[in-house]
Design a protein that fits this description.
This is F-box domain-containing protein. It comes from Mycena sanguinolenta. This protein is of the alpha/beta class. It has a domain of 215 residues. Helix content is 33%, strand content 13%. The protein is built from 18 helices and 17 strands. The strands form four sheets. An eleven-stranded parallel sheet has the order 1-2-3-4-5-7-9-10-11-12-13. It has a two-stranded parallel ribbon with strand order 6-8. Strand 9, helix 9 and strand 10 form a beta-alpha-beta unit.
Length: 549
């Protein structure tokens, strides 16, 4: 085996040498943990520990294998960037400015999750403006800063409007003032495809008309003070197909309170009346505390304003009207109920489901799952062969999150009936002789047995967590970014720009029989001789073989 700095490479008959770069890049992405871990894993321990270490170790193994893999793997490394503390922002900008040209073109997803201390707002705005200029292909921007109890309210960055032209997916946390986001919305409203923000509590007298011509996926937070925008005069959403409405939490600093059930459903009904004509997927997420107030609403209140609605998700026990529908609901085909774990609920749900199917003959499936699934904005879709008589467990959903179906369902554009047919099946029927089976349709067509408490998944996660990484700050961590990253992202560096982590991660040398993955100490610099490069190459080849199986 030769050193990657030499001109001689693998034999021309080698499989990896004959594969096109586009194919290798696709294989590398399959070897990485799914993006849902990055987005929502922080709320589900011990996922953050195992996910971050596995993701980082895999990416570094790829880019350190050889010059060709280093060049291809850089796109995976910089494709999604998460900044967890403000010190990573200027370091990330320095890397974009000092590394070889073209690195910024790899960045497509940027998430801001750090808290901006007092006195750092100027630095935050200045450096973030540079990021937008240096990353022309940035399409996903999430601004979800952490808020300390006594800290200042997070301010949306004052970014020049011309720098936001390529963004199609925008996420704004519920604690950001709507007035600060309006200039960005004015610039992006013609091209936005998905948007997440808090329904405003007030509108300026000179508020411009925002025509979201391409917006299909909208996620709204509702506070007690939220005011519905006037259709056509403030907001125009002619193509909306997916809508998620959730209760915003209490935030004393922002001056917003969680709404009562009556206020929440008043806003939901008004919003559906104004914008529900094109909706295909509706998710009504009411908080657990609000659900205890026993809201009164009819099932038809969701269907009447939405004539083409096909999927409905609710996070409350279905205290729904059992009267016959007043209109034809032929397109309505599936219901998901997110409810608390209650043994008595199974009997109630079975009877309610039977009557619901009698009222709506076109209903194809009705499921229930644990209320903890409210953490995620998208639930597993329904497969073509679903009989609609089962519920699915937490483990089933986690399997779905690891599949391509989640990305397609969350970012995909469902424009016809065929596209709404799901490419991931998570329904499983009870069997008297065996545990419930969770089937996931995909290229591998794997089946995995799981119970409702997700026991096997937790045991696997705990085992990985025991192998997790400890923080180990290097004394020489203040090296320049260009010096470290030109060598293939030397891990003595203080910054990890691929995931926004400032921690070097040391993993125990215990072998894993499950993934056949030999660990290399992350504290070591880039290997300098043939023997160490052989180890790294074998590690990357293990990923390749595991992916091709």
């Amino acid at each position: 085996m030769v050193h990657p700095d030499n001109e001689v490479h693998l034999s021309q008959y080698s499989l990896t040498n004959r594969l096109p770069e586009e194919t290798l890049l696709a294989i590398f992405r399959y070897a990485l943990p799914p993006s849902w871990v990055v987005k929502y894993g922080m709320t589900l321990p011990p996922f953050p520990l195992t996910a971050w270490s596995t993701d980082l170790k895999t990416k570094l193994s790829i880019i350190r294998a050889c010059k060709r893999w280093h060049r291809i793997g850089l796109e995976c490394l910089y494709e999604s960037v998460i900044l967890h503390w403000i010190g990573q922002l200027p370091a990330f900008v320095q890397a974009l400015e000092t590394l070889a040209s073209g690195i910024g073109a790899f960045v497509q997803h940027l998430r801001i999750e750090y808290w901006v201390p007092r006195g750092y707002h100027a630095l935050h705005s200045t450096e973030l403006n540079k990021v937008f200029k240096l990353c022309p292909r940035l399409t996903h921007f999430a601004f979800n800063p952490q808020l300390l109890p006594l800290g200042p309210l997070p301010a949306f960055p004052e970014v020049p409007t011309l720098a936001l032209g390529a963004i199609a997916h925008l996420e704004i946390c519920d604690r950001v003032k709507y007035a600060a986001v309006v200039p960005a919305l004015v610039q992006l409203c013609p091209t936005l495809e998905s948007l997440s923000l808090l329904l405003p509590t007030t509108y300026a007298a000179d508020h411009p008309t925002l025509n979201f011509a391409c917006l299909e996926n909208l996620r709204l937070g509702v506070a007690a003070e939220s005011v519905l925008p006037s259709p056509g005069t403030i907001w125009a959403i002619p193509q909306m197909q997916q809508l998620l409405i959730h209760c915003a939490p209490n935030c004393e600093i922002a001056g917003t309170m969680s709404p009562s059930s009556e206020r929440y459903f008043t806003v939901v009904r008004a919003f559906l009346g104004a914008y529900g004509r094109t909706l295909r997927v509706l998710s009504v997420r009411i908080s657990a505390g609000t659900a205890n107030e026993e809201p009164v609403y009819d099932f038809e209140q969701f269907l009447d304003p939405c004539p083409v609605l096909q999927h409905l998700y609710v996070t409350d026990r279905p205290r729904l009207s059992r009267s016959r529908p007043s209109q034809d609901a032929g397109m309505f085909r599936s219901v998901d109920i997110l409810d608390e774990t209650d043994p008595l609920w199974a009997f109630v749900f079975k009877a309610w489901r039977t009557e619901l199917k009698d009222n709506y003959p076109g209903l194809r499936s009705c499921r229930s799952t644990d209320l903890c699934m409210d953490l995620f904005p998208q639930l597993p879709p329904f497969g073509e062969d679903s009989n609609g008589d089962t519920s699915f467990s937490t483990a089933c959903y986690l399997h779905f999150l690891c599949s391509d179906g989640y990305e397609n369902a969350y970012y995909g554009s469902n424009t016809d009936d065929s596209e709404l047919e799901c490419n991931a099946e998570c329904d499983h029927a009870p069997d008297d002789d065996s545990d419930q089976n969770c089937e996931k349709n995909g290229d591998e067509g794997c089946d995995k047995s799981c119970d409702g408490n997700c026991k096997d998944f937790v045991e696997d996660s705990d085992e990985d967590c025991d192998k997790g990484c400890n923080k180990d700050h290097d004394e020489n961590s203040n090296k320049n970014c260009d010096e470290s990253l030109d060598k293939g992202l030397d891990e003595n560096s203080d910054e990890d720009f691929s995931e926004g982590s400032d921690e070097d991660q040391d993993v125990s040398d215990q072998d894993s029989d499950d993934n056949n993955f030999e660990h290399i100490d992350d504290s070591l610099p880039i290997p300098g001789d043939d023997e160490e490069w052989e180890i790294d190459r074998e590690e990357a080849m293990t990923i390749l073989r595991r992916t091709l199986e």
